Amino acid sequence: MALSREDNQLLTRVEGGAAMGEMIRQHYWIPAIPSIKVEADGRPFRVRLLGSNYVVFRATDGTVGILDERCPHRGASLALARNEDNGLRCIYHGWKMNARGEVVEAPNHAGDQAQFCKHVRVNRYQAVDRGGIVWAWLGKGETAPRFPELPFIDLPAAQRSVTSTEVPTNWVQGVEASMDSSHVGVLHESTTQITAGGGNQRLLMTKALAPKLEFEDRPYGYRYAALRALGDDKVYARINNFVMPWYGIICPPDADGPSTVFFSTPVDDVTHRAWFVHFNPKRPLGMTIMSASPDVWNFPPLPPGGAADNWGQNRDLMKRGHATGFPQHLGTEDFAMFISQGPIADRSDEQLCSADGAVLRVRQALLKSVREFLAGKTPTLADNPELDYRRIRSVGGVLPAGGDWRALAEAA
Ligand code: FES
Ligand SMILES: [Fe+2]
Predict the structure, then answer these.
(1) Order of strands across the sheet with 64-68?
(2) 3-state DSSP call for residue 85?
């Protein structure tokens, strides 16, 4: 069940024309930066995706633009540009580019400016600003893939929070963790107790009772139900969804509680961005540890040390009963695990157990898609007539023993 070295490369590598990177580039929208960071006429941001650098800015009229970071003139960084009057002006020689990717001024060119500008090629990409995130499509051609209409996308801003941190490991380690429910009660035992918001119930449900998992392929990936016998001929079911290529949509801890979408997007082969979206479809979230974070582009925090000091693990705190010695945040505990697995986890000598079914299915879905792509096809999980992101439901509830958990999702 372990992966061959070749398959591990195929699964994880995204840079320099690697097939997985090219598949994602062509067939998926990529979350680039939290919308709130990018202000009209404010500073542009360097965003690194799939091993290439881009610059994201919001023009005077509110439009978001994504261009190659290198200025089309002689390659100075547009992350240093001035953002003024609906365009980025390179500070080296003053060329100005707008969000549509047109050069509108090249002041150091003598002669017919308009004519000259028309012929300069600017690498510009489609961008949308939805769900509190600026998304990029980096593919070739004009027809963008279907947008992932995930359950938080159309909610009012007060009903969701978006935070994100850059983590120095390959992205697949993060994606696997989003579907790896057997780590939650162990790694996050203390942080779920400390954090407000249904922590104790979540703990009970994830640790006290070993669930039976039932899987079902879906047009976007798969879903699974974790089934726990409650006695009284009843079963408690929690349904989670994996949506290609990296979204884990997690069942809320209780019926009215906030839900979570985790995703890990590839910055390059050995760096990813871990995203945490919390949302409540029924009411504003209020202030949470996420929405109150000092910088939504750098939260939760990375572990505070390096390998030499075990990434800053606090053993004194463990003596006092903390499960991990990483009290900073639940995400910090995850990041410590990812980093300790190495820059690109070696999956060729793993020894998997019955709890790893969901992780295996993540790998299978990604590998199936990249193999279809290599065969010259559009991956079936990227474009399927039955693919309707709006109908994805990650819900929980109590069923009579033997009842069908799919009914819970249909009812929601
Ligand atoms: S390098 Fe940007 S204007 Fe010259
Ligand atoms: Fe985790």
Answers:
(1) 30-34, 133-137, 124-130, 64-68, 52-58, 45-49
(2) coil
Average confidence score pLDDT of the chain: 93
**Which ligand lies nearest the alpha carbon of 90?**
1
Q: What is the pLDDT of residues 15-26, one digit of tens each?
A: 999 999 999 999
Sequence-separated (6 or more) residues with CB below 8 Å from residue 304: 311, 312, 328
* Model-wide pTM > 0.85: yes
* C-alpha pair distances (Å), 292 with each of 45, 162, 206, 285, 286: 22, 11, 27, 11, 9
- 73 pocket-lining for ligand 1 (C-beta < 6 Å): yes
Cβ of residue 95 lying under 6 Å from some atom of ligand 1: yes
Tell me the CA distances in angstroms from 65 to 151, 324, 358, one per residue in order. Answer: 25, 42, 37
For the stretch 286-307, pLDDT in tens is 888 888 888 999 999 999 999 9
Ligand 2 centroid distance, CA of 274 (Å): 11
Question: Which ligand has the minimum distance to the alpha carbon of residue 69?
Answer: 1
